[in-house]
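anyone seen this seq b4? input:
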Amino acid sequence: MFAMSSIRPALLGLLVLLPAPLNVSAIVYVRMKNERGPMAARAGIQCLELLSDTYFHMLDTTQIENIVIFYLQNLSSPAREILLGYLQLHHTGYDNHDSDDNDDGDNVKDDYANGGHSLFQLKLMSDTVSSGDIRRAQFKDHKQIDYYVIVIDSFDGLRRALDRISSTAAFNPRGKFVVLYNNPNDRDSDQRLANEVLMLLFIGHHSVNVLFAFAVDATSYHVYTGDPYHGATDCGRMKALKVATVVNGSFTTRALSTTMINIPKVPPELGSCTFLLCTRVAPPFIDLDCARGLELQIMDLLRESMKFKVNVSCREMDRGELQPDGSWSDLLGLMRDDECDIIAGGFNPDFDVHDEFGSTTLYLQDYHTWYVPTAGPDARWKLLLYIFEVSTWELFACVLFVSALVWRFVAHFLPESAAHRQLSICFLNTWCVFLCISANNRPECNALRMVFIGLTLYALNVTTIYTSILITMLTNPPLAYQVDTIEEIMASGIPIGGRLDSEDWFMNDFEDDRLVSERYNATSEFQPSLANLQAVLEGKRSLLMSRLYVRNTKYYGEVHGLTKDVFVTQIEMIMEKGFPLLPKFNRILSNLIDMGIMQKLWNDFLYNVTILDWIRANRALSEEDIIAASPEVVLTLDHLQSAFALYGIGICLCVIVFLLELMSKTRWVWKMRDALEKKWDALLVRLQLKELTNREMTIKPHIAALTNGSQFFRSCVQRGLYQVVVDMTGLTAPGDCTYRLGYNRKGAEEFRSWPFRNLSAPSRIKVQQQRRRYVVMMKWEKSKLDIHVMNYCLAVSTGRRQRTLCQALGNSIHRPPCDSIAVNDYLHRLAPWEERKLDAKVETTIVCTGTRTRQLIRGMKPNVTYFVDVFAIHSQHNNLSFLLGSTQVKLNRTRPTQLLEGKIVVGKLSTLGGISLFNFKVPKRSPNNFFKLHLTPCGGTVSLEVLKKKRRIMEPVRDVYYPRTITVRNVRPGERYLIRVVEADDTSRLNRIQVAVSSREDFLDLPRMPHNTTITELVPLRKCHSSTIAWFGSPDKDVTYCVYVFKLPKTQYYMNNIKIPTYCELESRDVCNHPQFHNKHCFNGNEFNPLSLDIPNLLPEHYYTVFVTAISSRGRSLPYKSVRIKTAPYCLDSNQIPTTGGVGIGKGAIKTIGFRKTGGQKRRNTAIATKNALADRGIAKRSRKQRERSNRNA
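predicted toks r here
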């Protein structure tokens, strides 16, 4: 029953020449299997359809997805037939009855029939399209491609296809690729070629979502995918992982293959991955030492959320620009050369950069403006004149002149002395009063006295106002004119410039911006730095800089930024378009912005640079520095220039008047003067009014004193200087009175015999060491003397005992002079604290507790003796205190536990305040420069540090909450290392940990664990009474696996009082007696990897916690990371009935080979997705057998 097809001519000729026996009636020809026939093409088309249906789906999409099928010319057979058949199938649609021919449900073509539930936009690309057509297409379609299908017969063909695909603007590195390779001449290089294809897409194009199907024969394909981020030691390295085998268009194990294909390439936590962050120094986003900054704080939030590590490198480079040859400079060039994964440093969005690179969500704003020197104070000699305006000075001169005339006029008509009748003396008196200077000639008449009083009050007000404004002008002198526009900067002619990426803002058609662009400099002298800011301060240049950068430097306030901002930019981080963490970065940043965390970081920055830094800087200044920093406090010659100028004017006027007086002594001047005086006197006599006032003024002193003396006594006074004033007014007897003043005070001997002091009794002090590290609770008894009014203070000293409260205060940080203060008032300012930390810089720390008799002290150092003294202070009598009790405290340090190879050591965290210490000495003959630690927390979360001579040799490993193997590198044989395990969560019930150590690749007597110890629940196989889990097996052969299942109460799933056994309690004999225990099963499973297990006998819509342990041949075990599973809320058919037999008995027995399939199970209509596995997408129709079976059951 064989049909003869194409046979080579040579072979046909040989067959014809052979003689045939006479009794033979027919000849049957047998040929080799055709590798290029229709069967091979049909198998390839079906493989592409199966992979695209299984892998091409996206969650939470609101747009029609698009797919690109790349057409390569000159493909060999059968690759060309596969590509053409796949294209024809997608162009002509599908037959609605194709699915009826397959009973196993693997053919899912009906999803695409007539639009179906998988609508997509089909695009075709080819290597025959010219470069001009590609450039024109860039302006038509910018929507990124979701899926790519490429059929190749050689590695060079894939390289050509990717070069054309990546040159388009719609290229999406995070899209999903399906690459099918079929070459009849190459059937054995699947592993090597899979590595090359995955590395080309991962390194060359930053793509990780790739499926590579290799034809091992005409109808069978091995499917590979990449796993770059799940490794514990090789994170970031692409590893080819075989996930499925397709034979004639069907998976050999459909459920397992579907799950393995859709496992996320990027896990939720990347604890073993380290990314390179290249930063540009741009405070405050990246500080000068690259250890602080707003963007580093944001990166810390991202790192803590996804548990990855970051190596920060500090650079002085700029962002980078596109070069004529197509390469990039500076930081973008380093990232293109794979020397950096992420770059940050106050970068603003740029269209050219976004065409080639990816970027995060915009999270901060930056304001840029031009900076010029701040205008200094104006000439100081003008201060005396700047106080009032010119019109005010003129008014003062008029008041002075009018007052002098009024003085002279009133004095002329009243019986005043001759001095008050001279005009010059009147001017002098008025001027003296005007300046609030005592005048020698005071008026005698009441009328002139009223003028004098009014003028004095007026002068007092004017002088007070002048003096107050003068003090303000001296301390805060007015500033000179401040340059505040770009036009004034351009007119001054000083050089201008800034960063290179800021020059684009001025390259436009506006005249003002064009003038700025012509004079713009981008050399190193115009980059933001402290040296260039000093040049700006000196007026040598003007820089375009960020306001935030200047605010973060010491030049803030010394250089002036223009009031109007030049431009405002958003801040982003830049990375490659295919960076795997970019979508999660954007999602986390959006959440941080919505929750106000970014605004909180901004407010903290403003608070730190405006308040805390100012306080910190002033604390570091001495008194001389403060005086030097405020030169306006001391009057200089500049301030007195106006005063000296006025004095010089007065001297000049004096000389002029002196010459005039000499001239007035001449004879002809005397004659003219006498004539004028006679006429003037005659005029005044006629108008003068004489006032007759006779007043008798008698002063009678009265002195009175007590004849028998008096005494004054005041108790409880403080030491110091007192002034005693004796008032002798009211004495009746005239004459002198003598008196004697005496005083006395109590001495030291009388104080020792004071009865209040002897009534105090010593109190016993009780010391309790707390669970937290180096925290001690002090308790003491109350004083028996005036128990209701006593306050207490605690003195903790490291040098000696404190006998008195004054001695303790003198040794404290405050050091008040006890002889000149009120102790009660001083201690009242020391507010009581529930908890107080010791100050290591002082010998004695004072803690006042009020009426409380307990105090919590933290910060004590181990192996140090502390002297504790309690003083009682009377609250109603000042300076009444006494020593109530004394004791000594010394904290002992716990010695670390010795670690031995091959032995599991249990450490307790509760004995040392949440810390457990271990030490390990690397064997001298160890050939390796590393050792491994296997850390198992018994519930809760811990952090691990490795130290050598009190110095860290590696970054701390934080938030370890499941069994984990940690490799410590760069160690030396024969040296001892300290391992510190710290409890990270105070709220957990963690009190023990298990630690194993090895200086070799594996642990002695312990099973070898895979890199990925995660247990995954296969959600597509979830049922109402069972669920299936899968995990990677141990590389060892003779390994036994034990599965423990614990039920969680349905009503208490979200409550904290559920007690589930920890990893350390699984080997206990009482684990089966636990109230939440469900079942346990152990088996030897080395035939399959990954392993799977069906867990039966479960309740519907319940949660269960599953533990898996691997046990070596010697009986030592290590646990996997636990998983929480959930059963379906309802049963889809009546055949799912839980078995009543035990584990491993009957139909419900646990199986270790593949996944159990229950007959009659219906396909689900909705997609179910959890964090442990991905569900199938789309809707699959029932097969013909399923419909027939349903009809029979009905």
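The chain has a mean pLDDT of 76. The two ends are 43 Å apart (CA to CA). kinda curious what u guys think
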